[in-house]
């Protein structure tokens, strides 16, 4: 069995190596055969050459057609330019009578629209100045009221802060008085308890009672001072609240004045802004009309240029455009001839 496998190994290696070089050899043979057939077959060479030349002719025709279109568009543009120049130079040949009459009418329309446009523009400018002046007056009146209100606002803020401090002091005083009063009651209870204690000797009882009574007297004196202070703080609080209400009332008067000014001028300003917007829309409509009329003049200028190109009258100022049109005509003729040859 081992001898059989050993004998088969070189054969397998040789079989695996054959397809590579054999494949390339077959491909080379096939290519040589195709080249030989192509060289021998004249009809095949003619069909391939015709196909390739047809594609080249088609691409060349497309390029020439694009160039021809551009040249014709340039010629049309030169006609329009020639017509505009002739109109501005007041060239009035008999052959141009119809187009010139139409252009005169359109120019009159443009003149009317331009006059209207200037009137609308002047109105917008006047309204803008009035609006700016009204806005300036409004801001000045509001600033005046705010300046007059400022000291009262500052007073109101100071009184409010003072009121807050008094309330905190009053709350602290009342809380402290309640605490001291509770301590006085506790001290009196201690005194009664000591006085009624039969276990204490007379000297000890007397010493303790004296000490408790001293503490009670000190607490009572402190409580009396706190109770005397509280009405004074309350009175100051009431006076402060009245002053605060008066300051708030004065500030309220200024706030109401500012609100009235704001409402009055806001309505005026908004009405004027709406009017300005309406006039601006009117100006845009007039501008659109002018553009529309100018658009109608373009084909008339083109017709004038075409007629002048055929008649070739003076003046000398038109000769430059005539020369350019001749160059375009030559280019168009050349391109059309080349297209005809390609067909």
Keywords:
343 residues; mainly alpha; 93% helix; 0% strand
What is the molecular shape? elongated
* Computed structural class: mainly alpha
- Average of pLDDT: 82
Largest sheet: none
How many helices does DSSP assign? 5
Helical residue percent? over 70%
Low-confidence stretches: 1-15
Radius of gyration from the CA trace? 56 Å
In N-to-C order, the SSE pattern is HHHHH
Distance between the termini: 81 Å
Written description of the protein model:
This protein is elongated. The longest helix is centred in the C-terminal third of the chain and has 110 residues, at 202-311. The protein has five helices and no strands. The chain has 343 residues and is mainly α. 93% of the residues lie in helices and 0% in strands.
What's the layout of helices and strands?
Blueprint: H1 2-40, H2 42-88, H3 97-195, H4 202-311, H5 319-342
Helix pairs in contact: 2-4, 2-5, 3-4
